[in-house]
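Reproducibility note. Readers wishing to regenerate the assembly model reported in the main text can use the exact inputs given here. Chain order matters: entities are listed in the order in which they were concatenated for prediction.
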Amino acid sequence: MEALKPLSRNEKVQKGIAARLVKMRKVWQLYVLIALPVLYIIIFKYVPMYGAQIAFKDFVVSKGIWDSQWVGLKHFIRFFNSYEFGRLMKNTLLISLYSLIAGFPFPIILALSLNMVRNRFFKKSVQMVTYAPHFISVVVMVGIVFELLDPRHGVVNMILQALGMDPINFLGSPGLFKSIYVWSGIWQSVGFSCIIYLAALSGIDPSLHEAAVVDGANKWRRIWHIDIPGIMPVAIILLILNTGSMLEIGYEKVLLMQNPLNIRTSEIIDTYVYKVGLLSQAMNYSYSAAIGLFKSVIGFVLIYSVNKIAQKTNETSLW
Amino acid sequence: MEQSFGRESLGDRLFTILNYVILSLFLITVLYPLIYILSASISDPSAVISGKVWLWPVGFSLDGYSAVFEHRLIWSGFRNSIYYTVFGTLINVVMTIMAAYPLARKDFYGRNLIMMLFVFTTMFSGGLIPSYLLVKDLGMLNSVWAMVLPGALSVWNVIITRTYFQSTIPDELLEAAQLDGCNDFSFVWRMVLPLSGPIIAVISLYYAVGHWNQFFSALIYLKKQSLYPLQIILRDILIQNDVDAMMLTDVDQAAKREALRQLLKFSLIVVSTFPLLVVYPFVQKYFVKGVMIGSLKG
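Running the prediction on these inputs yields the following structure tokens for the assembly.
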């Protein structure tokens, strides 16, 4: 008996593997289908992760990634001790916190308002117009901002002058950069971001509103006691998830809006990586990769922990 | 949708008025810059530069538009952008379906592992420099491939598509097809694809807008002017104020030249955004649908 036991367990395992192989063979065509996407992910996503090791080396193009000399944390230490480090961190965090907080209420207000409109034509018009800027490319968006804020003939300065004020060189003022970035972003995204809240509002049981009306609640009270609690879970989960991707600023837009006058407040990690690694004459691949890797790691820790929090609070998660 | 419940109280009437005021403010704030740019683009150049235009066109001139169409780089930019968008989106959609369908199947052994492999890349990346070095090592710098291959698949769109497959293609359909001797390839081809019209529309639009608006890849991967997409040309003119001097030689006065340069920018913004805004009202519902499907998971 005792001698039989391990054998039968072994058999069980073998049977299990065999059964699995049969199952896998039955759907072999699915493996063929997914082969190309998996290959893509490995080549274009995982190979660069392997390549990120140049952050710990003095990368020389002719030697390649593997044969370049290992220098440990040299580039990281250089970055942490550099004059740029504090400034980059401060700008990156301030810009994203600013957009996170300033951008939070507007889509909610828009959604709550739209949800209370009875005139379908008006509602559709507002939706159509406010969604539209979402599709304007980042280059054109910055172009529009430049035209409107131009110090000599931009319409904003024309209005300021008509009111008897001095024209402001908006893009040349370091103090105004973050506001211009954030508010033009809100202008562009408010409509599209409100879609998800509208969906949440349409999921609220209409009988709640009917009951509230019977109890004599006016529209203010119904928004306060029914609509806002109804979209709270969505709002909180979005806020949490956005906090997780805090380091992901629209670097293309920042890059386009930068100029020598505002660089003090506009340089963020991503734009600095680009400039050091690809734009400067002395190809600092390793140093630049180290800064990029630093950001990736912090970003990963953030998004991972935030998703864990989201799972706990809402039982909803990214995956 | 809000319904009417009997007579409105004073508070409710006040609310309705305030609500319309708030929405009108949103509407005006979003609409005003767009109208201003459209008006400026067809106004008299001197009126634009002296600040007489603030809402409606002042005077009338199509000089800006003719300058846009005389600019040779703008034409090649348009052509390249259309090419990258069509070709890139085609690759994207095929790849996305090839990834999403197996991942939607419950009997696909290893799907959790592959899913993890995919999702991890949305949270962590090797960074700009290693990706650039990869593209360089693959010999794709200064080629169309650099514009379409590095972004051949978006994991978010795979997740959206997978969710769609899971919720719209019933298991019974697959079982019935299998009983009839249908294999997985022909099931995808003859059953899944015909049922996926809406989701293909949604992801095609997402991908296409992404390609059309893409500018950073071109900035780092392309050095040849003949390959530049529209967005790079736009950046040179709108942001860096780098207007091809050749085309403005017939205008002798400096002030006039400056005015025309401004007009060209406004016209260019209109021309480059126009294709999108014309199609947009017709496809808006697909974008909205995409957000809805996406929000089911995530």
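We highlight two features of this model. The CA atoms of residues 55 and 225 of chain A lie 53 Å apart. Chain A has a mean pLDDT of 86.
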